[in-house]
Amino acid sequence: MSAEYATFGLAPAMRPGGVLANGDYQVHRDFVDFIVDGRPLLFQLSDLDAVSPLASDVPPAIFAEQVRGLLLEAEAPLADRRYVIYGCPECQSIECGAVTAVIERTDDDYVWRDFAWQTDARADLELNGYHGIGPFRFAGAEYRGALRSLLDGDGHGCRDRDSDGYGAGSGGRRRVLLIGARVAVLARLAAALRTIGIGADITHDAAGVPADELRQYGAVAFGRAVGEPERAAVRESFERAGVEVAYVDGLAPIVPLLVAQIEHALDRSPLERRRLTRLVAADGEAGVEVTSTCRVQLTAYRLDRLYRTHAHEVFDGILEAGRHRVALDAKAVKGHSFIVARTSGSVLVEAMGRGSGHGPRGRPGW
After folding, report:
1. 54 vs 71: CA distance, rounded Å
2. What is the CB neighbour count within 10 angstroms for residue 203?
3. Structural domains in the chain?
């Protein structure tokens, strides 16, 4: 095998869920990604919405079996010694399509080769092969060490660690505390979050809540009607319990917008391992920065004078690594509006223009 050595590692990653402009839901998935030569392997696949088989929400026995498969200690699930590297985040069925590769041992090394997009029993390398990816040759000790670190007795290894380990991106504290004045908005938001796989609880404050319960939360979302004294009391409760959480200031009572803000807050991955790193919105344009070629979707949300929500898909296309300026439909971003930017692994939210979260004059908070 002529492949040069590549470094192999693992890192937490997530596929953010969301409520899409057309009303569909996109489920939240935490997983462990493969880091090849210091970069997520998924970044080499520009238009792929997928997760690795090492997902946090699969049963422990199946998770362990996936790890043993990658170690070649279990039978290959597909013909021709092919293994799933990335699969559908919604149903995980091969019929939806998956990135597969041959994994084999060469002396003490492991080689990943012949990457392909596969939708049935056998891969067609000529028609659907990823000819620019691999082969990768990994030193055996490094490869085995990384994967076996996931198997720490219960078969689920890193998934249960705290935010200093893999837990932040692989199932750690996927729960949000919602605090606001408008019960109807909070109820819709909680329902949306639960639908995409994020736990949500509603309360007026966190006083008297035991520390063990507070440790379940990864974020706290405040409605605009919540005053600073109430916010300070909540922060004090978490600090007293020794729990570090992300705090979200809700921009507007628009459920898809709030879901996107919360998803961003739950993303604890290092900036250098994110695809979408910057979003600005002003003067009818959006500025986007991505670290690798990928599909980017921009959605504009706004409230009209009757506080009705309007959503518009204003951009959906492939952008190369770097900074980009995208012109936005003037009708979609008139008045006080907000932009949500999504890639397969990141989501950012920004108020349009000089609006800092303030909606139409007299608009009620939540």
Report:
1. 13
2. 14
3. 5-169 (no CATH), 173-249 (3.40.1010.20), 271-366 (2.60.40)
CA distance 292 to 319: 8
Residue 301 parent element (H or E): strand 294-303
Residues composing the chain: 366
- Containing 182, the helix (H) or strand (E) segment is none
Strand order in the sheet with 322-327: 276-282, 285-290, 322-327
Give the closest residue to 321 by CA, choosing from 365, 289, 287. Answer: 289
Q: Where are the alpha helices (DSSP H) in the chain?
A: 60-70, 125-128, 140-148, 183-195, 211-214, 228-240, 255-266
Instruction: State how far the Cα of 55 lies from the Cα of 215, in Å rounded to an integer.
Output: 22
> Which amino acid, 305?
R
With contact defined as beta carbons under 8 Å apart, do 132 and 99 qualify? no
Residue 354 has φ and ψ, to the nearest 5°, of: -85, 0
Distance of CA 46 to the CA centre of its chain: 16
- Joined together, the tokens standing for residue 350 give 């920004």
What distance in Å separates the CA atoms of residue 57 and residue 171, rounded to the nearest whole number? 7
Task: Give yes or no for a contact between 221 and 178, defined as CB atoms under 8 angstroms apart.
Answer: yes
Task: Tell me the whole-structure pTM to 2 decimals.
Answer: 0.86
Tens-place pLDDT, residues 111-159: 999 999 999 888 889 889 998 898 999 999 999 999 999 987 443 444 4
Residue 129: what residue type? G
